[in-house]
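WARN no homologs supplied; continuing
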Amino acid sequence: MADLEVAWFAALCDDDYNQLGVPAPELASSFSHCTQIVREAERQGFDSVLLPSGYELGLDTTVMASALAALTSTIRLLTAVRVGENWPPQLARQLATLNHVANGRLDVNIISSDRAGESLAASARYERTGEVMQILDQLGSGQRASASGEFYNFDVAAPRIAVSPRAAFYFGGLSHEARDVAARYCDVYLMWPDTEEAVREIIADMTQRAAHYGRTLRFGYRVHVIVRESEREARDAAEFLVAALDDDVGRAIRQKSLDAGSVGVARQSELRELARDDGYVEENLWTGIGRARSGCGAAIVGSAAQVLAKIRRYQDMGIEAFILSGYPHLDECRRFGELVLSQLDHGPLHSRSAVASNGSIGLDR
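OK structure emitted
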């Protein structure tokens, strides 16, 4: 069975509810609320926490990551960065500083983003993302970067505090362009919820793609969770979560994201269409949560034993990193920690060793 890293989710992007589509002022993204979630995740023993990023939504990720690095001591900080928005040498310095403040507890979730007001074709956007990842690989490892590509041309020294091996790159995407960038440059390939059959197919495809470039990947799975003492209680909680959701409100929430038209988002919509009338697309995988989310749009729903069994099936397939969330995030973090996490043999992937084993990505353009 694969190694296992279990992460929780800090709701930095105005995405916390008692019921989806019904804003609760006390759950709005704030320094106080999000810090509570992260501290609870650390107390429960989660290995890492995802600090998400949205252009219009919520709090700035790097600022929050810096503050949380100083307020935590054991939990890793998986910090999302929208690489299209930052000049790569500046971003490399920010990440080196974050890793310094966090005493080596930084991992990086790379987002292949447009700039606000910009809409690059997918091929060009992923070309730019690949260039940025190569630059961050060099500078983040303490090496000089000589970039000569379509988007970036410069020769700069690494930040003085950058250390090797660098923070691990987590990255996801379903399009051909996204998969190629992942196979070439990332360390942990992230998937959104999908059927078990589809997960197996994606892992097989990405393993083959990475091997073509002489690399190996680790695999991660980003999904919501609703766990209770019994399956009936969990299903009731899922129904309550969407009971007050108006379809127009849910559509407006989904459209706020700049990635609302991506292949991955389209697949989440397809899963909802494939699901039964009760929203379940397969055993214990419920798609109703995607009615009010652009990205990760399904939840593992069930008793503690059922949720544990589902996670172990994914683990048997080769999933090594789980990034979980649930509503409200503080309550579900505590509940999952007490009911399920305590039964899992888990720990940080130490994916920095995987970075070292793959060697430097190299600036090859």
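The chain has a mean pLDDT of 91.
OK
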